Amino acid sequence: MLAKVEELLKEVEEFSTTDLDAVEAFRIRLLGKKGGITALLAEFRNVPVEQKKEFGQKINTLKKAALEKVNALKLAAADAESTNHGLDLTMSGQPFEQGARHPLSVVRNEIIEIFNRIGFAVSEGPEIEDDWHNFTALNFPKEHPARDMQDTFFIDPETALRTHTSSVQVRVMEGSEPPIRTISPGRVFRNEAISARAHCIFHQVEGLYIDKGVSFADLKQTLLYFAKEMFGEKTKIRLRPSYFPFTEPSAEVDVSCQLCSGKGCNVCKNTGFLEIMGCGMIDPNVLENCGIDSKVYSGFAFGMGIERIAMLKYQVNDLRHFFENDLRFLKQFKTAY
Ligand code: DAH
């Protein structure tokens, strides 16, 4: 029986918890009506007389130790509960889902970054634009089809949603002196039926460089640098003669197809090249319209669709994906930009 007392004493000494329920269970197990210590006390009368003294002392020590332990643990548990405000701080947290930038923002930022590295600043203009900045200053004749109601969302005969970011060129030229090196990202609007290849709202980046002695060679090298930075070192470009009212000469720029490396495939319709932008030397009339002396200065301009660049870069085959906010699509673009 003495051995049993020793055993319980050891258990009391070793027991520890911060949980109030566990303290109470421990108390019941030892000191409750059917508890271990209570049972030992009931046995006292069976203890031989010569052992009664020692047994009595030991069991008193045990009972005292058990009571002290229960009280101390209860206090500690209550204390822990009040400092934790009843919260279980060991519980694991709620999973936190991290978002990502929209692919069009990713590509826009990358374009800005590439041109920043060669000294182009960013400029912006209004989305609601007047006829002068969107058309007239850019040399669009009064009867030009781009002014047609079918393409342009007019607000009144003199005001429309801008149909291209070239309007920002005009504002920058009017508001600053050459040398000018700027790119203008922004939203543009055209009255087009929505399809896999067209949308009534899309994004462009306009580029503008004006200084003394700027030549077509500067334009070509700038665009080649951009294409290599954007699509990879092996990328080639090709310029085809074209027409824009605000540039002379004008060209359309193609990049070698990423899928077949220029060999010819379905995507590039076996040409090995894909169109990415329009460009040209700024027409002297446009410089003069904006208060820049065309006898002293020359410059180039270019304009590209951000959706188009994103589709080529990430091989997206339907423009509508960019506007539908389907998380299964958007989640695929987790990048540093
Ligand atoms: N504004 C033209 C468009 O929306 C794109 C463009 C072509 C911009 C040639 C330019 C340029 O600056 O030089 O289709």
Search tags:
binds 3,4-dihydroxyphenylalanine; three-stranded antiparallel sheet; 2 domains; 39% helix; alpha+beta; seven-stranded mixed sheet; 337 residues; BirA Bifunctional Protein, domain 2
What can you see in these coordinates?
It is a single chain. The chain is an alpha+beta fold and 337 residues long. The protein has eleven helices and ten strands. The protein folds into two domains: 2-84; 103-333, Bira Bifunctional Protein, Domain 2 (BirA Bifunctional Protein, domain 2). A hairpin with a 2-residue loop joins strand 7 (237-244) and strand 8 (247-256). It has a seven-stranded mixed sheet, sandwiched between helices. A three-stranded antiparallel sheet has the order 2-4-3. The mean pLDDT is 91. Helix 1 runs parallel beside helix 4, helix 2 runs antiparallel to helix 4 (49-83) and helix 5 (103-116) crosses helix 10 (306-314). 39% of the residues lie in helices and 20% in strands. The structure holds 3,4-dihydroxyphenylalanine. Residues 164, 166, 206, 244, 247, 278-280, 301-303 line the site of 3,4-dihydroxyphenylalanine. 3,4-dihydroxyphenylalanine (DAH) binds next to strand 9 and strand 10.
